[in-house]
Design a protein that fits this description.
CATH architecture of the largest domain: 3-Layer(aba) Sandwich
Distance between the termini: 53 Å
Radius of gyration: 21 Å
Strand order of the largest sheet: 2-8-7-6-5-3-4
Largest sheet: 7 strands, mixed
Helix content: 25-40%
Strand content: 15-25%
Structural class: alpha/beta
CATH topology of the largest domain: Aspartate Aminotransferase, domain 2
Bound molecules: pyridoxal-5'-phosphate
Number of strands: 12
Number of domains: 2
Amino acid sequence: MTPDNEVRFRGCLDDVAAYKPGRPPARTDGRPTYKLSSNENPYPPLPGVLAAATEAAGQMNRYPDMGAVDLLEALSARFGVPTSDLAVATGSVALLYHLLQASCTDGDEVVYAWRSFEAYPIAVQLTGATSVQVPLTDDARHDFKAMEAALTERTKAVLVCTPNNPTGPVVRRDELLAFLDVVPSNVLVVIDEAYREFVREPEIVDGIDVYRDRPNVVVLRTFSKAYGLAGFRVGYAVAHPPVVAAIRKCALPFGVSHVAQAAAIASLAVEEELLERVEALVTERTRMVGELRAAGWDVPETHANFVWMPLGDDTVAFAEAVQAEGVSVRPFPGDGARVSIGEREANDLFLSVARAWRQ
Ligand SMILES: *Cc1c(COP(=O)(O)O)cnc(C)c1O
């Protein structure tokens, strides 16, 4: 109970855990350090993108275009969806917050796989709704049968993370479509495709195909990972107009800065070059997974820019051993560690610790 003379906040805030960002690496006596803890793109901005952002910064005395018209048009042309089906916000996490704020309140339930993205429980709890976390299968995938069983009349939203952060597997087309067929059409289904560009699975479901004839489906994507704009905060949602309208009502006015809008538009214009970098990261990912398995690690399949190390009780000690070499990873104590695919030297440094750990 809050004493009478203290400011009163909503009760649902009491148990909200603060979002833990990936740690920067510790200093190691002058040797280079690497951050493999936040799934960032290790490449610096492409010159054209940097130039567009720099030029846009010259207008910082003006509010940005609140409707983000040019960015919506660029996205519309790129993905073949009408601008009425698109919304942008300060990262796809912001879109998730807006969607949950628009759909959930006290007493409602939100179903999602667990372990999954750390932002989910926080975003759900802030609305007053309850998280219904459905354990992943043994091979770290969504368990759609169990998710179906978890649906109740209180379910307002379902979150599907593909590829799943932090474990890596992707949701296959057949399993998602079968699941969508059993979710009531008045329950919002959020398909979080933050790592879409890194997927190399032929049976992949493309959210943008799926949403077209399903008014309860919304697809979230981001410029933070493959496009390398994490610092600018810009993500987008694809959904039918009523869902888009609900997002827009909840969004902060002028959230996405002019600089971020310009950088996102410029990134779409140089997408081929950016996707070559994604390809190089995928090649590094294949190498990492191969080397880890060869060293005896039982790592799950990954279609994202990270790999999951199932470490159980060794997680914290392992993360500290890696940290001592100047590489930060993302530990989930008692469960495992998520390691982003970074520059080759960083990956090699990480692999050397991982190999030694098994000996
Ligand atoms: C990184 C990530 C996002 C994107 O976050 P932004 O807010 O767009 O930077 C969304 N979902 C998942 C699962 C992620 O890992």
